[in-house]
C-alpha cells in the first residue's frame, strides 16, 4: 500500500470489523462501550467489532463508534474515517468542569478548543485554532433546547495527561486561560477533522469537577453520571444528526 487512501481504506475495517460500505454517512464518536450498547439496544441492531480496537453499531445513516480514550486514538479514528468521507462527525465526550458553573450533568457546546495535547501538532502548526463546524454546532444547540435542556458554550482545554488532579500548578494554569472544561480529545478531533476535510462537532457532558479534591471522578460517581445523564446525551446526539439528515442541510461551512 503506497497511498494514504489505500492505507485508511484497509485499516478502517481492520480496526472496526465493518466493511467500508456498511458505515453510515453520519458518525457519532464516543469513548465508552455503554454509549454503543445503548444505541444498539434502542435501534435493535448488533454491536460489531467487540473483538476489535473500535466497537460500533449502525442504524440507518448513523454509525456510532467507540474509538477508545485519548488524543492519539482520536486522531487515528479521524484519519481512518477519511476512507469513507462522512458528511458529519459528532463527538459525544465527557469532560471535567473547570469553572463552577460547569456542574456535573451539564452540557457544554464547545466553540473552540485549546490544543494542549500535542498530537494535533502533527497536522497543523500550534497557532492554527481548533474549531468545530459552525452549522453542526448550531444543529446541536437547537436539539438541546428541543429536549428541554440548557447548555454552556466555551473553550475546552485538551490535554494528554490523564492524572493531573493533584497538580495545583496545572490547575492554576487552567484558571488563568479561562477555559470552561478540560478533556482529552476535543481539540484533536476538531483539528484532524479540518485536516481530513470532515465537518466535526462536539457535545460534552460534564462528568466531574476535578478542580477540587471532593470533585474528582471516582468509580461510584461515574456510575451515577452514567445512570442519570448518558441517555439524554446520546439521544441529543442522535437527534442532532437526524436534524441534518432530514433537512438535508450541509455542515461543511469551510472551504477546505
Describe the overall structure.
With 256 residues, the chain is of the alpha/beta class. The mean pLDDT is 94. Helices cover 38% and strands 21% of the residues.
Average pLDDT, all residues: 94
* H/E element order: HEHEEHEEHEHEHEH
**Fraction of residues in helix:** 25-40%
Numbering strands along the chain, what is their spatial order in the largest sheet? 4-7-6-5-8
CATH homologous superfamily title: Nucleoside phosphorylase domain
Q: Are there runs of 5+ residues with pLDDT below 50, and where?
A: none
| Total number of beta strands | 8
Instruction: Indicate the radius of gyration in whole angstroms.
Output: 17 Å
| Helix-strand makeup class | alpha/beta
The first-to-last residue Cα distance is 26 Å
CATH architecture: 3-Layer(aba) Sandwich
Please describe the biggest sheet, giving its number of strands, its sense, and whether it closes into a barrel: 5 strands, mixed, barrel
CATH topology: the name is: Rossmann fold
Binned strand content: 15-25%
What is the helix tally? 7
GO molecular function, one term: AMP nucleosidase activity
Domain Nucleoside phosphorylase: 53-227
GO biological process, one term: nucleoside metabolic process
Organism: Opitutus terrae (strain DSM 11246 / JCM 15787 / PB90-1)
Describe the structure using short key phrases.
7 helices, alpha/beta, 256 residues, single chain, AMP nucleosidase activity, AMP nucleosidase, Rossmann fold
Amino acid at each position: 500500500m503506497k497511498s494514504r487512501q489505500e492505507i485508511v481504506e484497509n485499516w478502517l475495517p481492520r480496526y472496526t470489523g465493518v466493511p467500508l460500505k456498511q458505515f453510515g454517512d453520519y458518525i457519532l464518536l464516543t469513548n465508552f462501550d455503554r454509549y454503543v450498547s445503548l444505541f444498539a439496544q434502542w435501534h435493535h441492531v448488533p454491536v460489531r467489532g467487540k473483538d476489535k480496537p473500535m466497537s460500533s453499531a449502525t442504524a440507518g445513516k448513523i454509525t456510532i463508534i467507540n474509538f477508545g480514550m485519548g488524543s492519539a486514538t482520536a486522531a487515528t479514528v479521524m484519519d481512518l474515517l477519511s476512507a469513507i468521507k462522512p458528511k458529519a462527525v459528532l463527538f459525544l465526550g465527557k469532560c471535567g468542569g473547570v469553572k463552577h458553573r460547569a456542574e456535573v450533568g451539564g452540557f457544554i457546546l464547545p466553540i473552540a478548543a485549546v490544543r494542549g495535547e500535542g498530537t494535533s501538532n502533527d497536522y497543523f502548526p500550534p497557532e492554527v485554532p481548533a474549531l468545530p463546524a459552525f452549522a453542526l454546532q448550531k444543529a446541536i444547540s437547537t436539539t438541546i433546547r428541543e429536549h428541554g435542556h440548557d447548555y454552556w458554550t466555551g473553550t475546552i482545554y485538551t490535554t494528554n495527561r490523564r492524572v493531573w488532579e493533584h497538580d495545583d500548578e496545572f490547575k492554576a494554569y487552567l484558571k488563568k486561560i479561562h477555559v470552561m472544561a478540560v478533556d482529552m480529545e476535543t481539540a484533536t478531533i476538531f483539528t484532524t477533522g479540518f485536516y481530513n476535510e470532515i465537518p466535526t462537532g462536539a457535545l460534552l457532558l460534564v462528568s466531574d469537577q476535578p478542580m477540587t479534591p471532593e470533585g474528582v471522578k471516582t468509580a461510584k460517581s461515574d456510575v451515577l453520571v452514567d445512570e442519570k445523564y448518558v441517555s439524554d446525551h446520546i439521544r441529543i446526539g442522535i437527534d442532532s444528526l437526524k436534524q441534518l439528515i432530514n433537512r438535508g442541510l450541509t455542515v461543511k461551512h469551510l472551504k477546505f
